[in-house]
# Entry
Amino acid sequence: MKGTNVLKGAGIGLALLLAANTQARTAELGAKDEPIKLAMLEWTGAHVSTRIAGQLLEKIGYKVEYVTAGNFPQFSGLADGSLSASVEIWLNNVGDIYPKVLAEKKIEDIGKLDLETREGWIYPKFMEKVCPGLPDWTALTKPECVQALSTPETAPNGRFLDYPADWGSRAATILADNNMPYTAVPAGSEGALVAELESAEAAKSPLVMMFWGPHYALAENDVGWIKMPPCKEQGNEHCITPPDVDKIVWSGFGAKWPAAYAFLKAFKMDATEQQKMMLAVDKDGKDLDAVVKEWVDKNEPAWKPWVDAAKG
# Structure
């Protein structure tokens, strides 16, 4: 009987140990029954990055919600915790609220997404015949180039196709800084930007526009990147440089969801892979979740280190 009691005691000890390990794992996940709310921004690249992060967070054991958010308004949501995280923040276009709430420690920058980026002014390559001297920016100031780009709404200025108004942009400031005879006209949406680029290419109609990469449209249209004018003043509003892309979380994120925090710090996005998925969604009309799931299913070696980081 004494031996039986010893075995019982050992069994109880083992059960307690297993329970403790389970509790430790639960504690590491944190508030796993409360959804992590990820910001879904306007552009497809951000949709891809966010859905990959979301599907992998679900694999770890979390609930995830996707919340449509504007590029500037998202920072209010991150500051008050109504949004949990945003995984693709282009730091060249964050408005005035981002530095304010970052300084107040209401949000936390958890590092680079490692997305290789480009941003600036582009044109369809045939424009080099319309505006001799391109890609140098001074070619745009020549009268024949301004006239070719002029429209009834901008005459006598040329028309510069800018980002949608709610994205924010530096183009109008840079045009003014350099006394360039152009009027920046906001596009209605990302889709409108791409449609104009494709239309200009097809009809050989003059176009200069603000754009960025990675983007599927760059794989399907022959474009040049303008060598930008010099910065009149150093600063975000007056210069365009390849932007850093970071991951931002609500300040209480790490304490509430420790494993998710470790995962998002490790999470990266390859520009070439993202662009392939963007092409599948935007051009081929495939379902975003299905495209992302296919990538996740086929690329465990890429994402396993991120998930392992969450396990500690």
Q: What stands out?
A: The two ends are 43 Å apart (CA to CA). The chain has 14 helices and ten strands.
